[in-house]
Amino acid sequence: MGQPSAITGGQLLCSFGMAPSALVVLPMNRVMIEKRAAANIMDMKPIINIPPFGMCMSMANPTVAAATAAALGVLVPMPCVPATVAPWAPGAPKTLIAKAPALTQGSTCMCAYGGVIQILMPGAVQTTAG
């Protein structure tokens, strides 16, 4: 049995973020699941598909490192700006959306600042992708 499909509005969380965020899928793939645009593994563009997660706590983030250094080593979270550089992995092994594997619960995406972005709630409640 497949995993639940990720669609617009699915809830995301970054391991270094302070708040959840909602997946944004542009309707250009023209695949709708439960009346919302379905995602594939290429829907990983910062800000466009993956909005900020409130504040970032990663010391690999230059703004966090600078603010922390200015505070004499006390961690100072700074506004999150996701820096994803690679597609989500793994995608659905058999289901393709716009010639790329469908995005499902269990997929993760890495931020260049070391955060692991995961899908907390994919959005689809009745539809799975295998």
From TrEMBL:
<protein>
    <recommendedName>
        <fullName>DUF4280 domain-containing protein</fullName>
    </recommendedName>
</protein>
<feature type="transmembrane region" description="Helical">
    <location>
        <begin position="6"/>
        <end position="26"/>
    </location>
</feature>
<keyword id="KW-1133">Transmembrane helix</keyword>
<keyword id="KW-0472">Membrane</keyword>
<dbReference type="InterPro" id="IPR025460">
    <property type="entry name" value="DUF4280"/>
</dbReference>
<keyword id="KW-0812">Transmembrane</keyword>
<dbReference type="Pfam" id="PF14107">
    <property type="entry name" value="DUF4280"/>
</dbReference>
